[in-house]
């Protein structure tokens, strides 16, 4: 078992639905600790930079438009195997394919408005955490 950190984003659709607390409760019940958090309305530049790996994909523009459509809640979660544990709580990218009881099955509308983002590996988690948080903003310092 490895103590890891991962980046979580509660996307604009879930913030608008008023389910920040319900999503946070799922993280905490699963043993993931919130060690950094902020609410932010991303600029186009920030969203494009964050999703730069998807730049050439056909859904890139729609993804960026959606991510800047309202504020998001960005958090760092810490726990045993946090990257995978978080992705299991999230469920499949397309909510129609997400297992019952996952965040996307319960709160997401579509593959675009799919409630949450989670880092997909420990290396990407490090990059994504540094994209949004200074070292002094992740606790304990
Ligand atoms: P995320 O990065 O947001 O945690 O989601 P993910 O790993 O499950 O999915 P990824 O392949 O990284 O795609 C990033 C986001 O792009 C949107 N997407 N749309 N229309 C499509 O075919 C499509 N595919 C992906 C989704 O909102 C996905 O979360
Ligand atoms: Mg991804």
UniProtKB/TrEMBL annotation:
Keyword hit for Transmembrane helix: no
Gene that produces this protein: ndk
Domain Nucleoside diphosphate kinase-like residues, every copy: 3-140
Cofactor section: Mg(2+)
Principal location listed in the UniProt entry: cytoplasm
CDD domains: NDPk_I
Residues that coordinate or bind ATP: 11, 59, 87, 93, 104, 114
Location in the cell: Cytoplasm
A GO CC annotation given for this chain: cytoplasm
Keyword Nucleotide-binding appears in the UniProt entry: yes
Record family assignment: Belongs to the NDK family.
EC number: 2.7.4.6
Alphabetical keyword list: ATP-binding, Cytoplasm, Kinase, Magnesium, Metal-binding, Nucleotide metabolism, Nucleotide-binding, Phosphoprotein, Transferase
Example of a GO MF term: metal ion binding
SUPFAM superfamilies xref list: Nucleoside diphosphate kinase, NDK
A Gene Ontology BP annotation from the UniProt entry: GTP biosynthetic process
Oligomeric and partner information: Homotetramer.
Active-site residues, as the UniProt record annotates them: 117 (pros-phosphohistidine intermediate)
Catalytic reaction list: a ribonucleoside 5'-diphosphate + ATP = a ribonucleoside 5'-triphosphate + ADP; a 2'-deoxyribonucleoside 5'-diphosphate + ATP = a 2'-deoxyribonucleoside 5'-triphosphate + ADP
Protein name per UniProt: Nucleoside diphosphate kinase
Organism this protein belongs to: Dyella thiooxydans
Function (record text): Major role in the synthesis of nucleoside triphosphates other than ATP. The ATP gamma phosphate is transferred to the NDP beta phosphate via a ping-pong mechanism, using a phosphorylated active-site intermediate.
């Amino acid at each position: 078992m490895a103590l890891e950190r991962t980046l979580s984003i509660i996307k604009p659709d879930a913030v608008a639905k008023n389910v920040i607390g319900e999503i946070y409760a799922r993280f905490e019940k699963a043993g993931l600790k919130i060690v950094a958090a902020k609410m932010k309305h991303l600029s186009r530049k920030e969203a494009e930079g964050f999703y730069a790996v998807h730049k050439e994909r056909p859904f890139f523009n729609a993804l960026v438009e959606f991510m800047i459509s309202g504020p998001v809640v960005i958090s760092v979660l810490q726990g045993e195997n946090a990257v995978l544990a978080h992705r299991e709580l999230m469920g499949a990218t397309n909510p129609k394919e997400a297992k019952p009881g996952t965040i996307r099955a319960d709160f997401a509308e579509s593959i675009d408005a799919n409630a949450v983002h989670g880092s997909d590996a420990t290396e990407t988690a490090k990059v994504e955490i540094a994209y949004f948080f200074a070292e002094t903003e992740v606790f304990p310092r």
